[in-house]
């Protein structure tokens, strides 16, 4: 079911500088649609247009439509659509520090999420906040609630943002490069969290990234954007194997250790070792194996990047091979 529909959207700066040039795609319930393209291609501008957060008065939607279910979001007074933006459609950003207020505690900011939409959770606000923080797999939720953003790690801040974004049970979660500033292990965990939340709650996710490695890990559908235009669009598993556009192929070829056979429905995540570790964990629950493989994977990647591929790297390859057999992925 289509939840969010972007139809021939045009965003312009001033009168004649077109930044988004007639972009169309749909975001489906329970699916992740990745909007991918190089820096400056207009990805954030599309997300900001959906959220009515265009960063300058000179930037305007000059054509097309954005529909949430059967309602248009374009050209309606802000108060009419406040219940949709921020409530039914929520957003997380690359830098949670810029979205969180640095001088206010997490609890106060969480409170504002409920107050701004006049929502009183059945079980009470505090209980709901703790539940949401736990859902985002934050250790010791009561401590997090009493903390200020600067007292948390980058990964913890992003988890707090995700729990706030999920607080009102949105139909659509827009994630604008939420893992770019994180180390690879935390990145894999956050991607796993978003994927799990989406599966558990049936949320439609619009995920913005410049990294096709991330696309390969989480996307159901992909929209490839260049210079404000869609150059290719399709199902991730198909497109990763059969990209027609040169630019898409270029982006895919930048994925480390990529081979088209990785783009199978059974093993969409076989891109980097860290993600393999995550999948290992979710499918089999072998936490010890997860740690060992994780360390080996990291070491192997470091050595490979230094041009010193050696026994460690071979062991890493071996771990991947074992994983593939377990997942019964084609080799
Ligand atoms: N505040 C602004 N005023 C005018 N033009 C802007 C503004 N912000 C961005 N742009 C322009 O809009 C275009 C698209 O920017 P956008 O931020 O959407 O790109 P992006 O694909 O999200 O890139 P990145 O991954 O670097 O964030 C760029 O050419 C940029 O120069």
From TrEMBL:
It is found in: Cell inner membrane. One of its GO terms (molecular function) is ATP binding. Residues 4-252 form the ABC transporter domain. SMART domains: AAA. It is a peripheral membrane protein. Keywords: ATP-binding, Cell membrane, Membrane, Nucleotide-binding, Transport. InterPro entries: AAA+_ATPase, ABC_Ni/Peptide_Import, ABC_transporter-like_ATP-bd, ABC_transporter-like_CS, P-loop_NTPase. Belongs to the ABC transporter superfamily. This is ATP-binding cassette domain-containing protein. It comes from Sulfitobacter profundi. The lineage of its organism: Bacteria, Pseudomonadati, Pseudomonadota, Alphaproteobacteria, Rhodobacterales.
């Amino acid at each position: 079911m289509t939840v969010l529909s972007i139809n021939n959207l045009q965003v312009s700066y001033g009168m004649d500088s077109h930044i988004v040039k007639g972009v169309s795609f749909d975001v489906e319930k329970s699916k992740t649609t990745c909007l991918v393209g190089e820096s400056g291609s207009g990805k954030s501008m599309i997300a900001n247009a959906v959220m009515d957060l265009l960063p300058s008065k000179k930037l305007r939607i000059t054509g097309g439509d954005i529909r949430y279910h059967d309602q248009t979001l374009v050209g309606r007074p802000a108060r009419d659509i406040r219940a949709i933006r921020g409530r039914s459609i929520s957003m997380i950003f690359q830098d949670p520090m810029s979205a969180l207020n640095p001088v206010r505690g997490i609890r106060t900011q969480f409170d504002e999420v409920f107050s701004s939409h006049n929502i009183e959770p059945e079980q009470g606000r505090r209980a709901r906040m703790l539940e949401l923080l736990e859902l985002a797999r934050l250790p010791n939720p009561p401590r997090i609630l009493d903390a200020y953003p600067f007292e948390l790690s980058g990964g913890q801040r992003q988890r707090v943002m995700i729990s706030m974004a999920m607080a009102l049970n949105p139909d659509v979660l827009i994630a604008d490069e939420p893992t770019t500033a994180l180390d690879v292990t935390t990145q894999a965990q956050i991607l796993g969290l978003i994927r799990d939340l989406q599966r558990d709650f049936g949320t439609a996710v619009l995920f913005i990234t410049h990294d096709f490695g991330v696309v390969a890990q989480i996307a159901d559908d992909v929209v490839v954007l260049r210079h404000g235009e869609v150059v290719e669009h399709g199902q991730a598993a198909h497109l990763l194997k059969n990209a027609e556009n040169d630019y898409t192929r270029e982006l895919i070829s930048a994925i480390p250790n990529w081979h088209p056979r990785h783009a199978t429905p059974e093993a969409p995540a076989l891109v980097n070792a860290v993600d393999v570790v995550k999948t290992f964990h979710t499918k089999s629950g072998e936490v010890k194996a997860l740690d060992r493989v994780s360390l080996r994977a990291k070491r192997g990647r470091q050595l490979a990047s230094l041009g010193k591929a050696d026994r460690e790297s071979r062991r890493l390859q071996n771990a991947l091979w074992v994983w593939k057999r377990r997942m019964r992925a084609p080799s």
